[in-house]
Design goal:
185 residues; alpha+beta; Glutaredoxin; 2 domains; two-stranded antiparallel ribbon; 5 helices; transmembrane; disulfide bond; antioxidant activity; oxidoreductase activity; Thioredoxin-like_sf
Length: 185
């Protein structure tokens, strides 16, 4: 009986590892090609690829596009109000935004609204945390799917051309964010 349990655990482990390998290899496939005068680069979610553009509403109902911030370094942060690591990370995000916004750095918070108990939780959280950086609402979960967000928070670090330079799963502190930004132009 004990050998059967060990064998079952081993098989489950192999299946999970195979799934991980399959998705990690296929997630780097380009979603489409960029047709830009400056460069032609694959659009995708892996390092070195142009981040997929999107348009979502902010808390005031305005449409915000990722491409609105071209020319700026971006911390594209996926988060939720119920997520404890997100709550810990947010004051650090705000401090980075305050310190670096004059240096063409943007924090763009993407709330995974589809996972919230209520959409009203988001503005209440933003007010409570005194967040002033742009926040958009992923109400349908489409962006979460496009960027393959499987853990909160997840942050993509984009250079001024919109190219992904880093992807961080989990909460970061001020020093970590500052270090990442110092490596990206």
């Amino acid at each position: 009986m004990k050998k059967n349990i060990i064998a079952i655990i081993f098989i489950i482990g192999l299946v999970l590892y195979g799934g991980y390998e399959y998705f990690s290899k296929n997630s780097g496939q380009p979603l489409q090609s960029a047709n830009s005068e400056e460069e032609s680069r694959d659009i995708g979610i892996e390092k070195g690829q142009l981040a997929p553009d999107f348009s979502l509403q902010d808390l005031n109902g305005n449409q915000v596009r990722l491409s609105d911030y071209k020319g700026k370094r971006i911390l594209l942060n996926f988060w939720a109000t119920w997520c404890p690591p997100c709550r810990v990370e947010m004051p650090h995000m705000q401090n980075i935004y305050d310190h670096y916004q004059s240096e063409d750095v943007v924090i763009l918070g993407v709330n995974m609204t589809i996972t919230e108990d209520s959409i009203e939780d988001v503005p209440a959280f933003v007010q409570e945390q005194e967040l002033t950086f742009p926040i958009v609402l992923d109400e349908e979960g489409d962006l979460m799917q496009t960027y393959q967000v499987v853990a909160y928070p997840t942050t993509y670090v984009l250079d001024a051309d919109g190219v992904i330079r880093e992807k961080v799963r989990g909460a970061m502190n001020y020093e970590m964010m500052e270090d990442l930004l110092s490596k990206v132009k």
